[in-house]
């Protein structure tokens, strides 16, 4: 197994690129990523017509650096790197509000889960268990730690 890279820690140092121009070219479109995402999520991101309903309905969008609508667009364009850099899939609470409201019938929550899995499969951890302060580990309910490690570590 490769060495874990906790490039997202500490979370406060996460660098958002929300306002930077996006370059789209043959080099940025990763068709393999689009195929893997489709296979893992069972969803066709090309059905998305960018209505923004998911972003408006998402209870976590205020905490995301890119709203679900934007992540869907990045996914359509095969922007693997940019998708992997956003905090969106990690912030997603898997509440399925977006899914039940999408007029195109896309299960966006499953797309978010697939993005999480594809990132974790690169051996990237959002949380590094060994670096959690002892006080935090002591104070947090065990179930919170277990669910945190299940969702956020590779
Ligand atoms: S609600 Fe569905 S169609 Fe609308 S932007 Fe979100 S994913 Fe795309
Ligand atoms: S499943 Fe995730 S992206 Fe969709 S509404 Fe809930 S928190 Fe937002």
Helix and strand topology:
Elements: H1 31-41, H2 53-57, H3 68-76, H4 80-85, H5 88-91, H6 97-101, H7 108-120, H8 134-139, H9 142-152
The site of one iron/sulfur cluster (SF4) has 15 residues, from helix 2 and helix 3.
Give a structural overview.
This protein has helices at 31-41, 53-57, 68-76, 80-85, 88-91, 97-101, 108-120, 134-139, 142-152. The termini are close together. The longest helix is centred in the C-terminal third of the chain and has 13 residues, at 108-120. The protein has two domains: 27-122, Alpha-helical ferredoxin (Fumarate Reductase Iron-sulfur Protein, Chain B, domain 2), CATH 1.10.1060; 125-154, no CATH class. The chain has 154 residues and is mainly α.
CATH architecture of the largest domain: Orthogonal Bundle
What is the ordering of alpha helices and beta strands? HHHHHHHHH
Q: What's the total number of strands?
A: 0
Label the structural class.
mainly alpha
**Largest beta-sheet details:** none
Let me know the average pLDDT: 85
Low-confidence stretches: 1-16
The count of helical stretches stands at 9
Name of the CATH homologous superfamily of the largest domain: Alpha-helical ferredoxin
Summarize the structure in short.
The chain is mostly helical and 154 residues long.
Keywords summarizing the entry:
single chain; 0% strand; 2 domains; globular; 9 helices; Fumarate Reductase Iron-sulfur Protein, Chain B, domain 2; binds iron/sulfur cluster; 154 residues; mainly alpha; disordered N terminus
């Amino acid at each position: 197994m490769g060495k874990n890279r906790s490039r997202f820690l500490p979370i406060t140092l996460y660098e958002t690129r929300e306002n930077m121009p996006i370059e789209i070219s043959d080099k940025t479109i990763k068709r393999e990523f689009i195929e893997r995402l489709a296979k893992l999520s069972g969803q066709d991101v090309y059905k998305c017509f960018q209505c923004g309903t998911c972003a408006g309905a998402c209870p976590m969008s205020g905490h995301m650096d890119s709203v679900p609508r934007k992540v869907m667009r990045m996914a359509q364009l095969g922007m693997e790197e940019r998708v992997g850099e956003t905090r969106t899939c990690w912030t997603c609470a898997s509440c399925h509000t977006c899914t039940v409201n999408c007029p195109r019938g896309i299960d966006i929550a499953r797309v978010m889960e697939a993005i999480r899995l594809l990132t974790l499969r690169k051996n990237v951890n959002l949380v590094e268990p060994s670096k959690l302060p002892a006080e935090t580990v002591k104070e947090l309910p065990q179930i919170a730690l277990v669910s945190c490690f299940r969702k956020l570590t590779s």
